[in-house]
Amino acid sequence: MDIEAIIDGIKDAGMQEIASIEQNANSQVQAIREKATVEANKQKSRIVKDTTVRLNRSQAVIEQRAYMQSLQLHADARQKLMQEVIQSAKQHLKDIRSTTAYKNILEKFIQDSIRAITPSLLMHQKMILHVDKKDEDMLTTIDIPDNEQVVIQYDIECKGGCEIESDDGMVRVLNTFESRFKHALPQIEQQLSVFFEEKISSS
After folding, report:
1. Which uninterrupted H or E stretch holds 161?
2. Which of 81, 120, 148, 190 allows an S-S link to 171, with CB 3.0 to 4.6 Å?
3. Nearest-CA neighbor of 60 among 47, 44, 68?
4. What pLDDT is stored for residue 40 in this prediction?
5. What is the pLDDT of residue 62?
6. Residue 111 DSSP label
7. In 3D, which of 154, 107, 103, 99 has the Cα closest to residue 132?
8. Is the separation of the CB atoms in 180 and 161 below 8 Å?
9. What is the CA 200 to chain-centroid distance, rounded?
10. Within 10 Å of residue 75's Cβ, how many Cβ atoms?
11. Cα separations (Å) of 41 from 28, 31, 34, 141, 142?
């Protein structure tokens, strides 16, 4: 075999080897591309999913904050309305003494007070009736039960009503407008809260 034939053989073998290497390289490149594409799609899916989750989570947080803010606004509005009604009621109490109905109210308060304290008194024990000085003239026109046992003292300040106690101070009945209002206030607030909640929720 001459030199040229050997050289040509080497060239052919070299070309085949190069072609084989190129084919193998192309196959590997294609496999890498496919794998990269699959991985990229997975990453994309995860990113989209994570983004969606984050968006949903953010939306839920915003909605929760809005809901809590709405509840707070309702609570504030309800509390404001309640305070306005209570202040109006207190103002009304302050003005009752000047109405024509006050004499009957004061008389009933005194009668209720005497009736309430009597079972706790000892035999022939006296009662001290505490009244505001502003009611002194009116009290002269009121019929007081068990008058002999009642000692009247004009020594309290109130918007109306009276207080009564046993002469030893062991039993005392508070029956002023202020004491009645204070006693009834929790129930008033509860009823107003329910009333205004229904009004606000339906508005």
Report:
1. strand 161-166
2. 120
3. 68
4. 61
5. 76
6. H
7. 154
8. yes
9. 14
10. 13
11. 20, 15, 11, 98, 96
Q: How far apart are CA 85 and CA 97, in angstroms?
A: 20
The whole-model pTM stands at 0.58
Beta bridge partners of 174: 163
Residues 6+ apart with CB under 8 A from 165: 117, 127, 128, 130, 171, 172, 173
Helices and strands: H and E segment counts in the chain: 4, 4
As a whole number of angstroms, the distance between CA 152 and CA 160 comes to 15
pLDDT in tens, 53-73: 666 777 777 777 766 776 677
- State what percent of residues in the chain have pLDDT above 90: 36
- Phi (first) and psi of residue 38, to 5 degrees: -60, -45
At residue 188, the pLDDT reads 81
